[in-house]
Amino acid sequence: MIIYNETFIIDDGVNKEWLNWMQTVHIPAVMATGLFNAHRILNVMDSPNEGATYCIQYHADTIENYYQFKDKHRQYLQDAHSKQFENKFVLFDTLMQTID
Questions:
Q1: How remote is the C-alpha of 54 from its chain's centroid?
Q2: How would you classify the pairing of strands 52-60 and 38-43?
Q3: Can you list the positions of beta strands (E) in the chain?
Q4: Exposed (0-12), middle (13-18) or buried (19+): which is 86, by Cβ within 10 Å?
Q5: Minimal CB count within 10 Å: which of 21, 85, 86, 100?
Q6: Are 55 and 7 in contact (CB under 8 A)?
């Protein structure tokens, strides 16, 4: 299984608004692409960063599904996020594969 992970460090002042927007707008839009079969929201409890840190993980059956998401959807979804929360977050992505 492939896991696409977005780690966000969010300004405290928009934490609740951001989490609501992610749950009602961003994550449903990512899932609507049909390229991921599950997602998970994680709160990083021992983050050394100021603000709240969250990981959003999306699970794909194949690497091809991830690349299709990356090529066709990721940029406009990240642009919408950036517009909504300009200068209120830091984002970095990681791509992982489970080991059986």
A1: 9
A2: antiparallel
A3: 2-10, 38-43, 52-60, 89-97
A4: exposed
A5: 100
A6: yes
